[in-house]
Every structure is written in structure tokens, then in C-alpha cells.
Design goal:
- The chain has 323 residues and is an alpha/beta fold.
- It folds into 2 domains: 192 residues, L-asparaginase, N-terminal domain (Rossmann fold); 98 residues, Rossmann fold (3-Layer(aba) Sandwich), CATH 3.40.50.40.
- Helices cover 26% and strands 23% of the residues.
- The strands form 3 sheets. Strands 1-3-2-4-5-6-7-10-11 form a 9-stranded mixed beta sheet.
- The longest helix is centred in the N-terminal third of the chain and has 15 residues.
- The chain binds succinic acid.
- Succinic acid binds next to loops.
């Protein structure tokens, strides 16, 4: 399992694989789209980065927790990842954990761990790639090298993301492009720093750990309440919300237009849902920013959270309320 070990080693970084394009394989090296995500295990990802084998100051372990295209990410895998990372961080010699993940839902998994994992002042660094491992100029190996460097860095803490030369707080992350190698942004917060030639230039403090209200014991995924996201758009139909409530939704996040405005037919249906006991929150469908301020007659605001983040908060609130 360890890819490198040395008598001079002072700490361990564990790379936990969950799939994604970083572990993706295409038939041709010039194919960046028609590949299959999640084909390579974490050991294979580490093995193709010679600079990792040269780190005589580090033991690097690699293990594969899942092999998913992250569009298929699920609550059970979140719980398994949270438990595994928590166990790894509890080992005194482990300086930090790297999680390789698909870019598509990375921001959701990072936010879930940010909100529910006790980090013990250690870093959990997500990384990913926009090009499969078989691409002529795959971006995964450099991203992985940067992530391991960050995870081993003394003093680093929080749920972080190392991607395309930038370091983000997991809670600030938004995927803003479907194809470009520089696919992520952190909006007004900006990156925490940049990785340049193997060194971090940090612009601001490490993210603070939030209060982990729901951290204690999350129930098994099958017992989680159903929380869905509905997008507001021209011609939106309130019947969509009625159908979701009829299908068992206990919470709804409406991804509104602009600063969280919502089509009136959805507002009417959301009011019916609230009257039936469903908790509704209003976010923005814009890639960056959130909902600023509020109006007296508006549905409750999710503030600066993206719709997927607001969905996670609402899940945790409903789980806590059911205790
Ligand atoms: C995925 O999210 O698993 C596929 C897309 C990617 O990693 O870029």
C-alpha cells in the first residue's frame, strides 16, 4: 500500500480515491470527452507522479474508497468518506489526507466534509482533473502533487481544494466551467493562495472550522430526509414542487434567478409546501454570489450559499431537528 517509505520520513499523507476524471481513461490520448471516469485506483494515480516517489520526507499511502463518476455521488459514499477520513486523521503520524474526486460534484462533497468532519487542525485536500489520466497533457498529476504538498504542510488546516495551481477553501468553491482546465472559482472570497513551483503562496488564513452541529452521529443514508432542488426559470411550473412534495420531499431549495427571485407559480407552490410542513429555502441559480438581503414577503433566504450547499445545510438541519 505505501508508495514510498524512508527511515527519514516524518509524516504520512494518505490519498483516498473516489473516482472522477482524474482517474478516467479514454481510448485515445486526444480524447478529453469520450472517456470513462473513475477507472484507475488511487495507487495508480500516485504511481505516475515521480516527484511523489522522490519525497523522502513523506510516507504516501493510497487507497481507493469509490470509483464513481461524481455525477453519481450519493449520501452513503459521503458517510463512508467522512468516516474513513476521520479514522485516518486520528492517526498521529498522518499530517493530512488528500481526496481525489470528480470535478462535477466536488464542491458538494467538500462542503459536506467542511460541515460535518472534526479535522483536529489537520488539512483534508481535495483534488481532481478536467482531463482524463490518458490525455496528452493530463492535469491530474500536477494537481495531485500540489494536493499532497499542501496536505503535508505544517500548519495547514481545513477542507481545502488544490486545483490548477490554486488553493481554495472547500466551502467557497464553485465549478464555473464545464470543459476548461481552470474550471473552479471562489467568487468574492478568491483563492486562499497559489501553488507555484511546489510552494504555496498564501494570501489569507486557513479556513476556520465551523460549529459541527450535526457532526455527532449522522444516521445511515437511507434514513436521511429527502431534500430536492428546483430551478426557477421562464415558464416555471409550480406543479413540479407539488409533485416533489407528493413524492416525499421534506425540504426544498429553490435556485432562483438573479438575487434569488422566484417565478410566482413556484412561490405559490412553495407556500403550499410550507403549509404542509416542508422547509423551503431560496438560493440563486447564478454561478457566483448568493442572495443578498431579503424582502418581507420573500421565501426564506439561503444567504451566500449555492443551491447545492443550501441543500446540504437543510439536510443537516432536518437531521438535527429529528433527533
Ligand atoms: C466527474 O465529476 O466524476 C467527472 C467529471 C470530472 O471529474 O471532471
Amino acid at each position: 500500500m505505501p508508495s514510498t517509505a524512508s527511515s527519514a520520513a516524518v509524516s504520512t499523507v494518505v490519498v483516498v480515491g473516489t473516482g472522477g476524471t482524474i482517474a478516467g481513461v479514454a481510448e485515445r490520448a486526444d480524447d478529453h470527452v469520450g472517456y470513462k471516469a473513475g477507472q484507475l485506483g488511487a495507487q495508480a494515480l500516485v504511481a505516475v507522479v515521480p516527484a511523489l516517489a522522490e519525497r523522502t520526507d513523506l510516507v504516501i499511502e493510497a487507497e481507493t474508497l469509490a470509483s464513481l463518476d461524481s455525477c453519481d455521488m450519493d449520501h452513503g459514499t459521503w458517510l463512508a468518506l467522512r468516516e474513513r477520513v476521520s479514522t485516518l486523521l486520528a492517526r498521529p503520524e498522518v499530517a493530512g489526507v488528500v481526496v481525489t474526486h470528480g470535478t462535477d460534484t466536488l464542491e458538494e462533497t467538500a462542503y459536506f466534509l467542511h460541515r460535518t468532519l472534526e479535522l483536529a487542525a489537520k488539512p483534508v485536500v481535495f483534488t481532481a482533473a478536467m482531463r482524463p489520466a490518458t490525455a496528452l497533457s493530463a492535469d491530474g498529476p500536477q494537481n495531485l502533487l500540489d494536493a499532497v504538498t499542501l496536505a503535508a504542510r505544517s500548519g495547514a488546516s481545513g477542507v481545502l481544494v488544490a486545483f490548477a495551481g490554486r488553493v481554495y477553501a472547500g466551502a467557497d468553491l464553485r465549478k464555473v466551467h464545464g470543459y476548461r482546465v481552470e474550471a473552479f472559482d471562489a467568487g468574492d472570497a478568491g483563492p486562499i493562495g497559489v501553488m507555484a513551483d511546489g510552494r504555496l503562496r498564501r494570501f489569507r488564513p486557513w479556513p476556520e472550522e465551523p460549529a459541527h452541529a450535526a457532526a455527532a452521529a449522522l444516521p445511515a443514508a437511507g434514513a436521511w430526509p429527502t431534500v430536492d432542488i428546483v430551478t426557477s426559470h421562464a415558464g416555471a411550473r409550480g406543479g413540479v414542487i407539488d409533485a416533489l412534495v407528493a413524492a416525499g420531499a421534506r425540504g426544498l431549495v429553490i435556485a432562483g434567478t438573479g438575487n434569488g427571485s422566484v417565478h410566482r407559480s413556484l412561490v405559490e407552490a412553495a407556500r403550499r409546501a410550507e403549509a404542509a410542513g416542508v422547509v423551503v429555502r431560496r438560493a440563486s441559480r447564478c454561478q457566483l454570489g448568493g442572495v443578498v438581503g431579503t424582502r418581507p414577503d420573500a421565501l426564506p433566504s439561503a444567504g451566500m450559499l449555492s443551491a447545492p450547499q443550501a441543500r446540504i445545510e437543510l439536510l443537516l438541519d432536518l437531521i438535527a431537528a429529528a433527533r
